[in-house]
From TrEMBL:
Keyword set includes Metal-binding: yes
Keywords for this protein: Metal-binding, Oxidoreductase, Zinc
Protein name, entry field: Alcohol dehydrogenase
Domain called Alcohol dehydrogenase-like C-terminal: residue spans: 198-269
A molecular function GO annotation: oxidoreductase activity
Species, as recorded: Sinomonas atrocyanea
Family: Belongs to the zinc-containing alcohol dehydrogenase family.
Residue ranges of domain Alcohol dehydrogenase-like N-terminal in the record: 36-157
Cofactor: Zn(2+)
Length: 269
């Protein structure tokens, strides 16, 4: 949208905000500054709805209200800070929540997923009255424009479906990372994935990429189990009908799976 008349360096846009714990998410006008050093201003094309946004709304992540929701997005760069050289207006990007520093102990040993010093925008976006917003996962992209660290923009090809590729920014990365980085799935191993939503299906894909040979999809919903079998699972268990522990033992020679990934996040699991 257009710049605020009185401050040409600030953009007035519509965004989804939650003002206090448990309050409804509301569409508000927010103010987004032009990018300073190390920052990029982007026009958001798509934004996925992720469970993490619900956790922000319910108070499960912090108390830094008001939160600007949304973090799983494809966008087009509209402006960059004066020192940003590897990104330019018009670039199509995915927004990522970990712009790694490249210099800390974790980065130095080739494990940037554990970076201690990830970057976000340093300037604050605000409500119309100047109240600073906390952007979800340092992104805040349920908005027409958002301000991020330039390193949070990962360039993508122009011709890919923005709604599909945006999922790489959270759910797919979380699931594939759980299998490959956290679970360290190796060739020939058996893997059970409990919960076959977006993250679970991505964990199944990650297990497949890592070379697991027995990949067991577990879900209460038979339709999700069928979908998982089409995306890399070698076996499916509908846990509404079958005891998953016994069924996983049966499929793994009585030993149980080498790696089990919980993509549900409930204590019962
Ligand atoms: Zn997410
Ligand atoms: Zn680092």
């Amino acid at each position: 949208m257009t710049s605020a008349a009185h401050r040409p360096d600030v953009h007035e846009v519509k965004a989804v905000v939650v003002r206090s714990k448990g309050a409804p998410a509301t569409v508000e006008t927010i103010l987004v500054p032009d990018p300073g050093p190390g920052e990029a201003l982007v026009d958001v094309l798509t934004c996925g709805v992720c469970h993490t946004d619900l956790h922000y709304k319910q108070g499960g992540i912090g108390e830094d209200y008001p939160y600007l929701l949304g973090h799983e997005s494809t966008a087009v760069v509209s402006a960059v800070g004066p020192d940003v050289t590897d990104l330019k207006p018009g670039d199509r990007v995915i927004l990522n929540w970990r712009a790694v520093c490249g210099q800390c102990r974790a980065c130095a040993k080739g494990q940037p997923q554990y970076c201690f010093a990830t970057h976000n925008a340093t300037q604050k976006m605000t409500l119309a009255d100047g109240t600073p917003l906390s952007p979800a996962l340092g992104i805040g992209s349920f908005a027409e424009k958002t301000l991020v660290a330039a390193g949070q923009c990962t360039r993508i090809d122009e011709d890919v479906d923005p709604a599909a590729v945006g999922l790489l920014g959270c759910g797919i990365m979380a699931g594939i990372g759980a299998a490959i980085n956290t679970g360290e799935v190796k060739r020939g191993e058996s893997v059970a994935v409990i919960g076959c939503g977006g993250v679970g299906i991505a964990a199944i894909a990650g297990a497949r990429l890592a070379g697991a040979t027995t990949i067991i999809a577990v879900d209460l919903d038979p339709a999700k189990v069928e979908l998982a079998k089409g995306l890399g699972a070698t076996h499916g268990i509908v846990s509404r009908d079958t005891d998953p522990v016994e069924a996983i033992r049966d499929l793994t020679g009585g030993h149980g799976a080498d790696v089990v990934i919980d993509a549900v996040g409930r204590p019962e699991t």
